[in-house]
Model the fold of this input.
Amino acid sequence: MHFAYPPRKTSNPPLYLPRSSNLPRFRRSRLQLIALAGLALITFIYLVTWASHGHGAYSQHRPSGKPPVVLVTVLDEVKYSKAYIDAVKENRIQYAERHGYQTFFPKVGDYDLKNAPASWTTVVAMRHALTKFPDCNYVWHLDQNSFVMNPRLKIEDHVMKSSRLEKLMIKDHPVVPPDSIIKTFSHLKGQDVDFVLTQDKEGLSSGSYVLRNGDWAKFFLETWFDPLYRSYNFQKAETHALEHIVQWHPTILAKLALVNQRTINSYSKASKGAEYQDGDIAIRFVDCQAQNSIACEVESQKFAQKWRTAFKNS
Done:
């Protein structure tokens, strides 16, 4: 059976018929307008939702400064006696209470370091402190084998105040002495500094440093604690890892201020760095750490009564 072919569509419609293209063009314009309006509405809702969850540039959490500073000291209660640990904690607590600060005393073994040396605990502890005290302005890491000696000095004024930093910063200086080709920035301003650190005779000294709370500090600590650096088996573990990332990550170097060692990190002896002098904010017992815990306790006794007297008389 054969079927008739369908009639062909004429390409020459009669003049009296309305143009068939006018109506679709109007409809297309209208549909495009509706689509654009819908897209704009969806975008607006997305941006509002995104910002409300803390992702927007203007909704970033701004610390209230309560407390102004958190003093972080990692304690090793296995190697050191209870009397020594109690003396260290008493020192930190008295200093913090005087200025409205908070103390944070995590312990060796609190965190899973994935078989890395225990000294890496300090890096995780600092990151933990930022989470535990989201409204603090600064966190000060001070090694266990040390004492705060001058209760009058406040971190926010003595170290982190912009005008003070302008005077303290060591600019255009090798990051790792004596001849590192990477140097501290010569144009860095005090208001742009988020990380204050010192050097001793051997290199960077990570036993006492100050961080400004914020997204950059979190990024820095998480970079420092990266599994890759922990796997490198550096001789000085986290300290040599720090030297590596400071030299090869401009984003970190751009926020770093090196200051004179005695500003926050005086040593009890001059064999490895700047020796403590009366009036310095803190003293660290670095030589004893290469010996044993008893050596640190013995050395600390020379300064225990001195800090208590200074706190009593201030």
User: Anything to note?
Assistant: The first strand starts at residue 69 and ends at 72. Residues 50-59 have pLDDT under 50 and may be disordered. The chain has ten helices and nine strands.
